[in-house]
Amino acid sequence: MHINGAAMSNETILLVDDEQNIIELATMYLEQEGFRVISARDGQAALDRAKAERPALMVLDLMLPKVDGWQVCRKIRAESDLPILMLTARDEDVDKIVGLELGADDYMTKPFNPRELVARVKAILRRTEQRRPEPVGPLFVADVKIDPARRTVHVGDRPIDLRTKEFDLLMVLAENEGIVLTREKLLDLVWGFDFYGQTRTVDVHVAHLRNKLEGAHVTIETVWGVGYKLDKK
């Protein structure tokens, strides 16, 4: 919960980095904003602390001992919707794309300004709160049933296993059935930020959805040069 953008003291941030100076610097700036900060120095410790402490958000470095950040992100996403701000030491699009495809909510490149880190953390938490409306009833498109309260999808009686962002993307497309949404709009609605014009992550998630919805009486159509729309077959 936020009041006028300020953090409440019960919001815990889990910092995961093997560099102690980064942990100390980020902790100082986050604590000044009222956050409770806990930390982990390797991937396995991060998974253990996330399970035990149930933080509001994880700041996750990719290059970690024992279990790397990609594996941590994958394991977290298999179990929860915990917001993840990913840190990468290299300014390479492939790192960002892979991290986002695994379910990270945002990314920053090292070295980073600690004030920007705090701003990104607040922005992700604000978006997370805004994406949590009161649960509504299931949404049906042809033989596809989407239950936002339970975050489940069925094609007829067959359950479909979707990752967090795949579910969010399908929900947005279904809520706008028959309407063409640009890749940029989908990035904004599903990921909550503009990925500097790079839209490959949307294309990859659409491809995953198409495979998982194979046999359903719906189609995700590509509108060349524009974006995608969900329609009944």
Write the layout of secondary structure elements.
Blueprint: E1 2-3, E2 6-7, E3 12-16, H1 20-32, E4 36-40, H2 43-53, E5 57-61, H3 69-77, E6 84-88, H4 93-101, E7 106-109, H5 114-130, E8 139-141, E9 144-147, E10 152-155, E11 158-160, H6 164-175, E12 181-182, H7 183-191, H8 200-212, E13 218-223, E14 227-232
Helix pairs in contact: 1-5, 2-3, 4-8, 6-7, 6-8
The beta-strand count equals 14
Helix/strand structural class: alpha/beta
By CATH, the architecture of the largest domain is named: 3-Layer(aba) Sandwich
Uncertain segments of ≥5 residues (pLDDT<50)? 1-9
Please indicate the count of domains: 2
CATH homologous superfamily identity of the largest domain: Response regulator
| CATH third-tier fold name of the largest domain | Rossmann fold
Give a written overview of the molecule.
The protein has 233 residues and is of the alpha/beta class. The protein folds into two domains: 2-130, 3-Layer(aba) Sandwich (Rossmann fold), CATH 3.40.50.2300; 139-232, Winged helix-like DNA-binding domain superfamily/Winged helix DNA-binding domain (Arc Repressor Mutant, subunit A, Orthogonal Bundle). The protein is 40% helix and 24% strand. It is built from eight helices and 14 strands. The strands form four sheets. It has a five-stranded parallel β-sheet with strand order 4-3-5-6-7, sandwiched between helices. A four-stranded antiparallel β-sheet has the order 8-9-10-11, covered by helices on one side. The protein has a three-stranded antiparallel β-sheet with strand order 12-14-13. Helix 1 (20-32) crosses helix 5, helix 2 (43-53) runs parallel beside helix 3 (69-77) and helix 4 runs parallel beside helix 8 (200-212). Mean pLDDT is 85; it is low at 1-9.
